[in-house]
Amino acid sequence: MADVNTLFWDNGGVILTNGWDRASRREAVEKFHLDWADFEDRHELMLDAFERGHLSLDDYLKRTVFYRERPYSIEEFKDFMFAQSQPFSESLEFLGKLAATRRWILAALNNESTEINGYRIRTFHLRDYFEAFFSSCYLGVRKPGPQIYNLALRITQRSPQECVLIDDRELNLECAREMGMNTILFQNVAQLGADLARLGVTADRVVQP
Predict the structure, then answer these.
(1) Which of 116, 152, 199, 208 is positioned for an S-S bond with 134, CB 3.0–4.6 A?
(2) Domain spanning 6-17+87-198 has what CATH number?
(3) Which pLDDT value is given to residue 126?
(4) Which residues pair with 6 in a beta bridge?
């Protein structure tokens, strides 16, 4: 069994809240007085292009919300969307301790649109933790499709057995596991730490002789 040297992290649901999930969209519908069925139908039709980086945030909103005149601006709506992103402090603290050891490659692997992804990277200083960002908006493919995992492996030049994928959705882990990657279904930081320790990954610094 190859030693683990690379950790791929989902963002939403693991280290941050989800950026634009069903609950956030429900809140938006109530706050901005939208019709849920109409909005959600439009969202589903635009989601793939949006998260694969083929559709800008402005164009997404033009098709889902501002296809007719509204009593609020697109900037107000975008501010609401960005505000849905909040940190999971305990997760970030644990991630920071792993990053400080400099013993593993740490990279994000997530489904996010270009603008939301960029906002989250900047706002929560994710470059302090991750060496690379394998985001759907940059790669043009999304989880749980195997293409995104293949690209991450080829770009990092790692074998599946050397890698761990950490995600809070079982479906996103299935293809990675079938390819031979180690996988951890995130529930909480204590459980994550225990599961990583079983793979030889801990936040303890190595004491040099």
Answers:
(1) 152
(2) 3.40.50.1000
(3) 98
(4) 105, 163
